[in-house]
Amino acid sequence: MSRKFALTGAVALAIALTPLAAGTATAAPASTQQEAAVTTVYYSTSGAPSFRSQINQGAANWNSSVTNVRLVERSSGASLRYVEGNDPRGSYAQTNGHGSGTIFIDYTQAQQYYPVRITAHETGHALGLPDHYSGPCSELMSGGGPGTSCRVAVPNSAERSRVNSLWANGFAANNAPEQRIYEDGTVLTF
Ligand SMILES: [Zn+2]
């Protein structure tokens, strides 16, 4: 029994030392590596005062999930604008899928569904993600597909990876036309 404890102690010591060794080994190359630039997308909530806190929460959920793009609220000069109102087709994102456009929050839909899921989902369109209504509640872009009880308002790992990939080169190489993506499945291209 004492021999077994001794062995366990030796293994524990080896494990404890490993991170130190690994840290020392990676420290030198890390200092010469160029850090990937983070692209900032400025958004305005002035057209959607009722949902400002939900919009900001949705943006914060994205900011804590991805590394290549960051959403920052700004009252003027924003490329992404949130507005609110009534539309029989519900909420929509009219966007180039790369940080520009208008996101419309529908009052009726915001009473039926969890509003932060709506704002985070619509923001997902502005960051480049399409709808995927057949997905589970854990998938942000499944939107209203899983029903009104779904309160997940953060992107899943696949959605995070996709957005990081789409923003790896910042605003560069984006020639997409604006589309209006309604949450009833209608997509209009401009
Ligand atoms: Zn959608």
TrEMBL record:
* Pfam family, any one: Peptidase_M7
Reactions catalysed according to its record: Hydrolyzes proteins with a preference for Tyr or Phe in the P1' position. Has no action on amino-acid p-nitroanilides
Organism source for this protein?
A: Amycolatopsis heterodermiae
Q: What class of enzyme is it?
A: hydrolase
Q: Which residues form the signal peptide?
A: 1-27
Q: Which residue windows are transmembrane per the record?
A: none
Enzyme Commission (EC) number: 3.4.24.77
What name goes with this protein? Extracellular small neutral protease
Iron found in the keyword field: no
